[in-house]
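Hi support team,

I'm filing this because I wasn't sure whether my run with magnesium ion finished correctly. The job status page said complete, but I'd like someone to confirm that the output block is well-formed before I use it downstream. Pasting the exact inputs I used:
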Amino acid sequence: EAKRNDKHGWRAYDPSMTDQRTRESILADLLEHAVDAGQLSVHYQPIVDLASGRTVGVEALARWQHPDYGFVPPSEFVPIAERSSLIHTIGMHVLTEAATQVRAWQTRQHADPLHLSVNLSPRQLLKPGIVADVVAVLERTGLSPAHLTLEITETAIVDTERAAPILAEFRALGIRIAIDDFGTGYSSLQYLLGLPIDGLKIDRAFVTQLDSTTQGAAVAEAVVRLGQILGLDTVAEGIESPAQVAELQLLGCTSGQGYLFSRPRPAAEIEEGLNLIPPQTVR
Ligand code: C2E
Ligand code: MG
Ligand code: MG
Ligand code: MG
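And here is everything the job wrote out:
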């Protein structure tokens, strides 16, 4: 069984394989076929308005299930994809599937339309034609630009001179921009906050420390204050306890996501939390 070759000619997964470069290059090769082979899917994590407790949006998160390797987490395959143009193929696939799904949910909603957040990697942001590519997906799927947030990490905008005009183009179209994992990068606040952005996502590392008396709690508080002063939305990542929610509410943090509300799940499994009109009553 361990000697069996799969259809790409690679030896099947051997748990004793410890050479990281070998695993990486194997995964890089397998990843090339992942989209076409239908191995990539999208999970959705609800984003909850902390004042009302209502789900106001979802973050789309890529999932890769390989027949031999099993589940490969995005923390492993996204950096591999990021080293080649594959990240663009994967990113566009996630955006297309998620936009289609959220648009379908919107047609079954009573009230405010659900919002979609999608991660855009540094390499994607700087890809020539990225704005037109995103717009084409919105046109094809019918999702309004006003219902899309692109999450961009600080590392993506280290090259501010190149990033700023692209971000400005997105915003001119009505697409929102949020800085992901805020507080974990090394960027200077001065240039970061000079950028055309709409929101800050407080990294889980700081949210985790909220119910203790460590410096992490101070960072979360500082980010919320900064957001308030600059008129930016603040979204807390990785909320796992009611105590963290209480603290974030006190601070005035706009919204949050985390296992306390829901893990990222396939579309069908998060639907019941979305308060939708049942499909059979939709005409
Ligand atoms: P991220 O954008 O910061 O996404 C949030 C991550 O935190 C997700 O990990 C999510 O599952 C996890 N998370 C949310 N709530 C909790 C919690 O309460 N506790 C804990 N322990 N974790 C929580 P995930 O899905 O493994 O994704 C990891 C990273 O991979 C993402 O971080 C993002 O940077 C990247 N990624 C995922 N999908 C895509 C994609 O489609 N495109 C790009 N470019 N990057 C992606
Ligand atoms: Mg994100
Ligand atoms: Mg994040
Ligand atoms: Mg994070």
